[in-house]
Amino acid sequence: MFFDTGQGFVPAGSSTMLVLNEETYARVIQEQVPAAKKFVWILTADVKDLHVESTRGRFRPFLAVLADLVDRGVYLRLVHAKEPGPRFRSDFDKHPALVEGELFERVLCPRMHMKVVIVDGRFAYVGSANLTGAGLGAKSPTRRNFEAGYTTTHVDEIDRLMEFVDALYLGDHCIGCGRRDTCPEPLA
Prior knowledge:
The chain is of the alpha+beta class. The chain is 25% helix and 26% strand.
């Protein structure tokens, strides 16, 4: 069944939702990412060591969540614009599933400014929040950044976004890139 939105027909059950501030953390990081069955793609300009709530009010590194996903057979792709800080790198090294696993891939692209999370091709977040504690992490409302974004389950939009991200990831834009001479890891 499809519904006419005035801008085209979308499948019944598809939705787009505005998420603000800590709603982004709750909807994307707490709800959708841990529920991934096949893959998670994360694109961000900045990446820092961030923590998420776990059981009994405790917090754990988000990298542990990602390592758990890899251990369950979920493919992870992380594209970011600059090298992570020392705390992220130190925490990263504690997770063999990420360091040595074949299901985790990371790409550095200095032109990356998108903030996108795609889960299983069925859910996508596009917004302002970086993969940092003050952006997508579990910071208190008085210490986090002001963030805004949208989540969607519209398959056509997610497919289009995935095609765009895949082209970036595969290096389709590298040859003609204006920053190729300063890029630390050209893909093509």
